[in-house]
Amino acid sequence: MTEASDRNSADPGRHMRGEVEEQPSVFEGLLAERPGIAEIAGIIAQRRPRFALLAARGSSDHAALYAKYLVEVLLELPVGLVSPSTTTLYGASPDLTDVLLLSISQSGGSPDLVEVTETGRSNGATTVAVTNNPDSALNATAELSVDIRAGTERAVAATKSYGATLLALYLLIDAVRGGRGEHARGLPELARTTLDTSADAVSEAARRYRFADRMVTTGRGYSSATAAEAALKLAETSYLSARSYSGADLLHGPIAAVDTETAVLALCGSGRGGEAMREVLSTVHERGADICAIGSATTRVDASHRIAVPDCAEEVAPLLEVLPVQRLALELALARGGDPDSPRGLNKVTRTR
């Protein structure tokens, strides 16, 4: 039986379901590797980079957005997101002396990220590959590498590899500032609790939004990455027209398109980003939108439906918030008659230049 026919068997979504549920054990395994990640962080800290650049595509681009907040808040360094085409299409070769370049790719096989990393290294950057494939071309190109250790992922939609990438980035960046991953230690058990306690609310949300035509996803701060990942997951598995906005940006124009026909998935944690969402969601609620709030502070905002997750430090909250998001994408896809293990027109590895 071929892999494609295996995916399209009588149990659609079983790979994605299993990989979502595997994340607590993936987190445990990765936390055990923190000393090795700390060694790489030590090299970075010794070189004292003057700023950081992040290169990524797809779900990894959303992990890079999370890393952007980590570097700017925890390390207080300026951060930029790389546009790979400036190198691959236009031949730009900037001086990157004393720059940290993090190249994030679950497969490590995208030619544009390999080329960006190669150019960055030759132009003075400290290059670090963050991948789920230690034998990848990206790992071979970068000076340093972090293996996210998520294991083989069979579903096309990235779930456990996304969560593992977030945790690896947190452990790396926290260690650069001299931290010991204190806020991450309880994540495996908190992830299990999240999956267990949110299941009924996620199923209800899938029933509620089964016939939705469009959805807006929104968050502030660290949770902006979760909002972006939510829009991608809903689009690629359920074929929803989903668009992500920062909570701040949502009020600067896009709010005009929000009405009683709009479903809004909002990330609402107990930290500063979540607090900043209260005013945003009050405005969205006034426009009659159906709001599904996900996070540890859902009772503090206007919402039509709530999916609670355990409270934790804000800087690691996206690792928990994304779990019900992934489950919702899975269940919505199944409710709408699709197979999230094999979305139409998509492959596991996308090669771009």
UniProtKB/TrEMBL annotation:
GO molecular function, one term: glutamine-fructose-6-phosphate transaminase (isomerizing) activity
PROSITE patterns documented for this protein: SIS
Domain SIS: 40-182, 205-343
Enzyme class name: transferase
Residues of the signal peptide: none
Assigned keywords, A-Z: Aminotransferase, Repeat, Transferase
Sequence segments annotated as region (Disordered): 1-22
Gene Ontology biological-process annotations: carbohydrate derivative metabolic process
Biased composition (Basic and acidic residues): 1-20
InterPro entries per UniProt: GlmS/AgaS_SIS (IPR035466), GlmS/FrlB_SIS (IPR035490), SIS_dom (IPR001347), SIS_dom_sf (IPR046348)
Coiled-coil portions: none
EC assignment: 2.6.1.16
Name of the protein in question: Glucosamine--fructose-6-phosphate aminotransferase (Isomerizing)
Lineage: Bacteria, Bacillati, Actinomycetota, Actinomycetes, Pseudonocardiales
